[in-house]
């Protein structure tokens, strides 16, 4: 008798419909496990990573089917494994990549289901058994780069929930402007134009100038050494005179496949880095993170004009991404980097990765153990990539991830010293978490803090690039199209960025400031003759040289040194 194939699950609903918040009071938990903390996760998907991950799928399926749930592997993971097979890598390289190649399993109700599938319930049922086999199991956390929460910038409330800013009385005769609702008094101030919020400004300084002309290859400087490469996994990079094709690669790929798996809308108006109105296309309100990636790219370019930026798309204007989608982009970036080390055409090694997003883990004390996210970042670092993360904007001491994967520091020391030297091994650059400073050098009120924060950089009321195509629906309060002498006269249009520059605040932007400093330190090394080996067969020597250079840049910019 012919064996029947397993039923195929229908296409999943949109991400927003599948998100659930873990309730610490009502959530089940396995014996001996601590109570979880609040977190947001994709309710019908669970993540696995480890050496025996494929062998563990049947164990998860058995436990799920006992509850009447079907388990369907997500096709994207097999597509990424196929990319690795296509790359035809040396076996020792494949072995190092394997821990980062996890599996995502989608849960669907079967005919015998008595309850809606819940990834948390399944997580608690299989976690101990899989841990004994060295397999990590994790919720598919929801990461955010949204205003005022989880590691992103501050923006003002929706333009239609407040009076028009220029029809109110003189700003100093109204009630105190920062008494609007917010979890902590004072944090909302950073979202207002004039107090660090997103607003257009004029740039009158010079354009950042490169010290080195391009060589024959777009990634090479005239002096014969490679430009520092900074990967920005964010919302992409919009149109701006500074951000030409020789400065930023807007469609970086690996073996012809995009590194960022997010596909922007075909309508330019709804593209978060073109029109910026994906959430309100009919009313014209700019998205919460519209311009986020462009702003970050501009900061890196200001500090290290010679750097090459890979603008990888992670999310749209809502600034929301599932951990599984982020992992797929990180795996593709890792493969792109490895192929660059091996000298493959159209691929180049990455020096610094910027991640300006985050989530709060339900069990932060176990996060490094059970998270496929940690395994993926560790694989990138083991190949010489320095990872820079933002500490978060909630004014919290609760660890935000991935920033809290950084080594914990001894805060009683005058210089940065790891509390546990083993957390900063010399064979790979450590992950760096960056908090934000105000323009006067004080710590920004919104900046998260804790022993996991490596350093602080300017992150409030910064000036950087915005897409010149942005023109939201909030108009200038006064606009004379035919004023004297036949000139247009108007007040400032608060969401038109035709001038290409604006202000913004958030640890999202403190991170790329440090990333630019690291790229500049690497450039100085290469100018002085400390050039990494040319890409080719000796990838081991290439990685070792890059790790040494990365630690030199980290020490020069933060003072942190590797342990034993």
Q: What does this protein look like?
A:
- The chain has 564 residues and is an alpha/beta fold.
- It has 2 domains: 15-144, no CATH class; 187-195 and 218-474 and 484-558, 3-Layer(aba) Sandwich (Rossmann fold).
- The protein contains 11 helices and 22 strands.
- A 7-stranded parallel β-sheet has the order 8-11-7-13-15-17-18, with helices on both faces.
- The longest helix has 21 residues, at 507-527.
- The radius of gyration is 24 Å and the shape is globular.
Topology at a glance:
Blueprint: H1 15-18, E1 19-21, E2 40-50, H2 53-66, E3 69-73, H3 75-87, H4 91-97, E4 103-109, H5 119-131, E5 135-144, E6 199-200, E7 229-234, E8 248-249, E9 253-254, E10 257-258, H6 292-303, E11 308-313, E12 320-322, H7 323-341, E13 352-355, E14 359-360, H8 367-370, H9 372-382, E15 386-390, E16 400-401, E17 432-437, E18 455-458, E19 462-465, E20 479-483, E21 487-490, E22 501-504, H10 507-527, H11 539-558
Parallel strand pairs: 7-11, 7-13, 8-11, 13-15, 15-17, 17-18
Antiparallel strand pairs: 1-2, 2-4, 2-5, 3-4, 5-12, 6-22, 9-10, 14-16, 19-22, 20-21
Helix pairs in contact: 2-5, 3-7, 6-10, 7-9, 10-11
């Amino acid at each position: 008798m012919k064996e029947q194939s397993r039923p195929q699950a229908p296409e999943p609903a949109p991400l927003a419909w599948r998100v659930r918040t873990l309730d610490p009071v009502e959530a089940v938990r396995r014996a001996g496990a601590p109570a979880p903390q609040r977190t947001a996760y994709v309710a019908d998907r669970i993540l696995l990573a480890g050496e025996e991950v494929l062998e563990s799928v049947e164990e998860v399926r058995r436990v799920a089917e006992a509850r009447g749930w079907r388990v369907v592997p997500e096709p994207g993971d097999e597509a990424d494994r196929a990319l690795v097979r296509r790359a035809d890598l040396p076996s020792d390289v494949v072995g190092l990549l394997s821990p980062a190649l996890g599996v995502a399993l989608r849960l669907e109700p079967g005919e015998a289901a008595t309850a809606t599938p819940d990834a948390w319930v399944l997580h608690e049922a299989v976690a101990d058994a899989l841990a004994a086999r060295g397999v990590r199991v994790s919720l598919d956390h929801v990461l955010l780069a949204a205003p005022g929460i989880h590691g992103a910038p501050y923006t003002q409330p929706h333009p239609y929930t407040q009076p028009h800013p220029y029809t109110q009385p003189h700003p100093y005769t109204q009630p105190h402007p920062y008494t609007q609702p917010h979890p902590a008094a004072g944090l909302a101030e950073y979202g207002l134009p004039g107090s660090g919020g997103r607003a257009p400004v004029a740039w009158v300084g010079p354009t950042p100038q490169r010290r080195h002309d391009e060589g024959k290859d777009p990634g090479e400087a005239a002096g014969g050494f490679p430009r520092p490469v900074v990967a920005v996994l964010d919302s992409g990079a919009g149109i701006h005179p500074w951000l030409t094709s020789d400065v930023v690669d807007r469609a970086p790929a690996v073996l012809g496949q995009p590194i960022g798996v997010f596909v922007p809308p075909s309508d330019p108006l709804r593209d978060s880095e073109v029109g910026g109105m994906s959430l309100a296309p009919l009313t014209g309100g700019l998205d919460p993170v519209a311009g986020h990636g462009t702003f970050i790219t501009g900061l890196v370019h200001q500090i290290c004009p010679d750097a090459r930026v890979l603008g990888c798309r992670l999310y749209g204007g809502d600034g929301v991404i599932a951990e599984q989608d982020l992992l797929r982009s990180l795996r593709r970036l890792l493969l792109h980097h490895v192929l660059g080390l091996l000298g493959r055409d159209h691929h180049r090694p990455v020096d610094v990765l910027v991640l300006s997003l985050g989530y709060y883990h339900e069990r932060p004390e176990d996060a490094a153990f059970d998270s496929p996210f940690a395994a993926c970042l560790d694989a990138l670092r083991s190949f010489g990539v320095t990872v820079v993360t933002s500490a978060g904007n909630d004014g919290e001491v609760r660890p935000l991830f991935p920033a809290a994967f950084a080594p914990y520091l001894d805060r009683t020391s005058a210089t940065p010293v790891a509390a546990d030297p083993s957390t900063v091994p010399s064979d790979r650059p450590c992950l760096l978490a960056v908090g934000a400073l105000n323009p006067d050098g004080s710590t920004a009120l919104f900046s998260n803090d804790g022993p996991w924060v490596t350093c602080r950089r300017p992150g409030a009321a910064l000036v950087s690039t915005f897409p010149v195509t942005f023109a939201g629906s909030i108009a200038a309060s006064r606009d004379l199209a035919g004023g004297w002498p036949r000139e247009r006269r108007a007040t400032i249009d608060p969401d038109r960025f035709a001038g290409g520059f604006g202000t913004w605040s958030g640890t999202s932007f403190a991170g790329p400031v440090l990333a630019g400093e690291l790229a500049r330190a690497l450039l100085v090394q290469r100018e002085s003759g400390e050039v990494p080996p040319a890409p080719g067969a000796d990838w081991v020597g290439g990685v070792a040289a890059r790790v040494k250079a990365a630690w030199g840049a980290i020490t020069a910019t933060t003072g942190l040194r590797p342990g034993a």
